[in-house]
TrEMBL record:
Keywords: ATP-binding, Cytoplasm, DNA damage, DNA excision, DNA repair, DNA-binding, Excision nuclease, Metal-binding, Nucleotide-binding, Repeat, Zinc, Zinc-finger. InterPro entries: ABC_transporter-like_ATP-bd, ABC_transporter-like_CS, ATP_grasp_subdomain_1, P-loop_NTPase, UvrA, UvrA_DNA-bd, UvrA_inter. Belongs to the ABC transporter superfamily. UvrA family. Residues 257-592, 601-933 form the ABC transporter domain. One of its GO terms (cellular component) is excinuclease repair complex. This is UvrABC system protein A. It is found in: Cytoplasm. It comes from the Bacteria. GO terms for molecular function: ATP binding; ATP hydrolysis activity; DNA binding; nuclease activity; zinc ion binding. GO terms for biological process: nucleotide-excision repair.
Length: 936
């Protein structure tokens, strides 16, 4: 049998489901013609040092090919760009399924997009409220519904005994155009000559009595349709139904029934109650993104420009009597406080209770006023009306900001949408719940059999989505949380839950470090989610460094051995057990043969502290926290416990505000002391180093200035008269004008993402041909921009001005980055480390407080060791470093830990423990302590 026959027989025996994904000769970026085989319907983890080529294999090769094949199936309009859409540089690929990438990009910058709308939960909630919501009258608290002859008869039998005598009536029609005399004449002609006085039940006969219309009070009379006795036989029911139908018809959809010597019952075929007409629920009515459903005043944003409650009540723990209301504390307006105290005495209002503990009714009086007390809002309206006076304008501006919309109370939808309730909660109240609480609410809904039947499918979809969001560790997020405020890890886990919710099978999911932002406690839940994605029939490909995730994988591919040009090879492929013995960096760290050492001693610091008191933003429970200076401080805790709120929104913002350089909102707190001990503050977060594709590591670190000077000083440049500007791709002169130095041209696609294509004029080299003729040591400016940082350090070895700037990039583990790599293509972790390198290059001098948000994002153990060296260098130079982190290797290396928790969301926001890592392990409540004790 020939070899060909054997292969084809083997192919026959393998169904499509079993056939693995095969990649041969992949050369994308730094990959060195690698061959990999990825088993189908299994979970494969691709690991390796940063910059070794993991993303090049997972995203730029496998996912890109899956996406390209998808575009091939689209319209001819989309396909016309395909010839110019780069095919991954690979010899052969087989077995690629439809691919989905779940990356760490913040989902949306749209101020209308929330967790609820992104996950479609809010859309299903709108449907649920439109189908089974009960409209409740705000006046009587009773349900609003339309009446019909059938419901009126049922109501009469339900309320009254048989043989009860009653009248069927309707109101005298309104007579704005006609006089009452005309109306009465028309009633007589129609055959309704008798009027019933509603109180004494006397009857006025329009045909016989001498009626003077001026003596008739139309409000006290009704038109009599019939006098009846309540019985449960067919004839009586038919007669009652006929009379009611007539009364509804003549009374423009309204009628009443007066019990003999008893009360009058009003009925309406319209959707109304208590004299109010309501809108019948429909899905658009609950949408704040639709003009029909959005609140008119705030247009569906929930906030309006006006007075900021946090500025008016700076300390909610203070009582009203002790001056909680800041604008009344001065002598000029103190009379309003005296008025409020008088009103409080009259109505027994608890003004000696802290403001935050007051109930909504009391707060309503404080804000809206009562009797002689003006109220905070009317007070500021009065101040605003005097804005022609300078001092009044200054006073008003002191309290300006954004506050909850007074019309919709911040719920974003029109007022009457909030009258519709399911289980006594309107849609705004449910949207303010955390995912954990919303899951309980929807699991335990009390519904009638009819409602269950109507809402079954909608509830199934809501519960399924909430279950997945809860299981990926996002139970602490509220449904109305703005999508733009989510971290990269949270956005990615929401996308993951969405994918699970859509229950696709036979697909390829490519994930980029889904454990980012997750406490070790929550990793197990995430791993179970990925396994369930695999178990329903999908292939899961994860780029990851987390040891737990690697351990859970069915197959592991380790790329290396090092980064950049020294990486791009498959150094290991196989099971977890064999990896423990493999001679690779990952294998050595995971098996414990190599490790990041615990510091021999913890730094004592300078003895000075920055103290933050009464931090109350979001879920923080009035925290008092000390941050000791000249130490490496880690702020830890489970996801959603309040770490970012404490560090970013409150501490960093408050220090910036004291230094006079902060314009955004500042987290609510009482006071901050000790900021005089530091000279400056730097936030090194994961935001891009530049939004423009023109920004890159060379321009950001200013190394490019030195490189351009070198090129302009070559003999060839002098002959051609080239200045340093000719070697910049940002200004006209030496750049290619067809793409204006971008190297790419953007094509706008209808209904699809724009496609970026290489510039045909310069072939993506960014410069004019004559400028590319200028060479320094045999390389032109384009060749230099294509060098990695490590190569450039060797190439410019004698040029200190350039190598000093680049060496810090090498020190933080970014030696593999290309000098000209466009800023938007850098991951969040890489952007953060480029910023760190910039600060390291000028670290001497003033005392600076540095903030880092999860700097280990995207880092292998080997890179974390380098990163810790950089942090230690900063602290040893007299600076202070505060890090929000979940990585145990960084936490165990800290001098001081502040552990926030114990849980996420409402159950978090407390300081669980503070001290050295050793002291944290002794705190029983601390989840971080439990995991730390395993590595110490």
């Amino acid at each position: 049998m020939s070899q060909t026959e054997t292969i084809s027989d083997k192919d026959q025996s393998q169904t499509d489901e079993d056939r693995p994904i095969i990649v041969k000769g992949a050369r994308v970026h730094n990959l060195k013609e690698i061959d990999v085989e990825i088993p189908r319907n299994k979970m494969t983890v691709i690991t390796g040092v940063s910059g070794s080529g993991k993303s090049s294999l997972a995203f730029d090769t496998i996912y890109a090919e899956g996406q390209r094949r998808y575009v091939e199936s689209l319209s001819s309009y989309a396909r016309q760009f395909l010839e110019r859409m780069d095919k991954p540089d690979v010899d052969f690929m087989q077995g690629i399924s439809p691919a989905m990438a779940i990356q760490q990009k913040t989902a949306s910058s749209n101020p209308r997009s929330t967790v609820g709308t992104t996950t479609e939960i809010y859309d299903y909630m709108r449907l649920l409220y439109a189908r089974i919501g009960r409209t409740i009258s705000p006046k009587s608290g009773k349900e609003v519904h339309k009446d019909s002859t059938k419901t009126v008869i049922e109501e009469l039998h339900h309320q009254f005994d048989e043989d009860t005598k009653f009248y069927v009536l309707f109101s005298i029609p309104e007579h704005e155009e006609k006089g009452l005399e005309d109306e009465l004449r028309v009633l007589k002609e129609k055959g309704y000559p008798r009027l019933l006085h509603i109180e004494d039940e006397s009857i006025l006969d329009l045909t016989t009595d001498d009626v003077d219309p001026d003596n008739i009070d139309a409000d006290n009379y009704r038109v009599l349709v019939d006098r009846l006795i309540l019985k449960d036989d067919e004839d009586t029911r038919t007669r009652i139904a006929g009379s009611l139908e007539t009364a509804f018809q003549e009374g423009s959809g309204r009628c009443s029934v007066k019990i003999r010597d008893g009360k009058e019952l009003n009925f309406s075929e319209r959707f109304e109650r208590d004299g109010m007409e309501f809108t019948e629920p429909k899905p658009q009515m609950f949408s704040f993104n639709n003009p029909f459903g959005a609140c008119d005043k705030c247009e569906g944003f929930g906030k309006v420009s006006g007075i900021d409650e946090n500025l008016v009540i700076p300390d909610p723990e203070e009582t009203i009597r002790n001056g909680a209301i800041a604008p009344y504390s001065g002598e000029k307006f103190s009379r309003h406080l005296r008025d409020l105290i008088k009103v409080s005495a009259r109505y027994s209002l608890p003004i000696d209770t802290p403001y935050q503990e007051l109930d909504d009714e009391v707060k309503e009086i404080i804000w809206e006023g009562k009797d002689e007390y003006i109220g905070i809002r009317p007070f500021f309206d009065e101040v605003k009306s005097q804005s022609y006076k300078v001092h009044m304008r200054v006073f008003y501006s002191r309290y300006r900001g954004y506050s909850r919309c007074p019309d919709c109370k911040g719920y974003r939808v029109r007022k009457d949408a909030l009258y519709v309730k399911v289980n006594e909660k309107h849609i705004g109240e449910v949207a303010e719940m955390t995912i954990g609480h919303a899951r309980d609410f929807f699991e335990n809904l009390e519904l009638t059999e009819f409602e269950k039947e109507v809402a079954e499918q909608v509830l199934f979809e809501i519960r399924k989505r909430l279950k997945y969001l809860d299981e990926v560790g996002l139970s602490y997020l509220t449904l109305n949380r703005l999508a733009k405020t989510l971290s990269g890890g949270e956005s990615q886990r929401i996308s993951l839950a969405n994918s699970l919710g859509s229950s696709l099978i036979g697909s390829l999911y490519v994930l980029d470090e889904p454990t980012i932002g997750l406490h070790p406690r929550d990793n197990d839940r995430l791993i179970n989610i990925l396994k369930s994605l695999r178990d329903i029939g999908n292939t899961v490909l994860v780029v990851e460094h987390d040891p737990e995730m690697i351990k859970a994988a069915d197959n592991i591919i380790d790329i290396g051995p090092f980064a950049g040009v020294h990486g791009g090879e498959v150094v290991y492929s196989g099971s977890y057990n064999n990896l423990l013995e493999a001679n690779t960096l990952t294998g050595k760290y995971i098996s414990g043969r190599k490790e990041i050492p615990v510091p021999e001693k913890r730094r004592k610091g300078s003895g000075k502290v920055i103290k933050l008191e009464g931090a109350m933003e979001h879920n923080l429970k009035s925290l008092d926290v000390e941050f000791p200076l000249e130490k490496l401080i880690c702020v830890t805790g489970v996801s959603g416990s309040g770490k970012s709120t404490l560090v970013h929104d409150t501490l960093y913002a408050a220090i910036q505000n004291q230094m006079g350089t902060y314009k955004d909102e500042i987290g609510h707190h009482r006071k901050i002391t000790g900021t005089n001990y530091i000279d400056s503050v730097e936030m090194v977060d994961q935001s891009p180093i530049g939004r423009s594709s023109r920004s890159n590591p060379a321009t950001y670190t200013k190394a490019f200035d030195g490189i351009r000077d070198l090129f302009s000083n070559t003999r060839q440049s002098k002959i051609m008269g080239y200045e340093p500007g000719h070697f910049s791709f940002n200004v006209p002169g030496g750049r290619c004008e067809a793409c204006q130095g971008e190297g790419i041209q953007k094509i706008e696609m209808q209904f699809m993402a724009d496609i970026e294509l290489t510039c045909e004029e310069c072939g993506g080299k960014r410069y004019r041909k004559d400028v590319l003729q200028v060479k320094y040591r045999g390389k032109n400016i384009h060749d230099v921009l294509n060098m990695s940082v490590s190569e450039a350090i060797e190439f410019f070895v004698d040029e200190d001005r350039i190598t000093n700037k680049l060496q810090t990039l090498e020190d933080v583990g970014l030696g593999y980055l290309k000098l000209g790599q466009s800023a938007p293509t850098l991951s969040g972790g890489e952007a953060q480390r480029v910023k760190l390198a910039k600060f390291l290059s000028k670290s001497a001098g003033d005392s600076t407080l540095y903030f880092f948000d999860e700097p280990t994002t995207g880092l292998h153990y080997e890179d974390i060791a380098k990163l810790l060296d950089s942090f230690n260098e900063l602290v040893n130079n007299g600076h202070t470093v505060i890090i929000i982190e979940h990585n145990l290797d960084v936490i165990k290396s800290a001098d001081h830990i502040i552990d926030i928790g114990p849980e996420g969301g409402f159950a978090g926001g407390k300081v669980v423990a503070t001290g050295t890592p050793e002291e944290i392990t002794e705190a029983e409540e601390s989840y971080t302590g439990k995991y730390l004790s395993e590595v110490l």
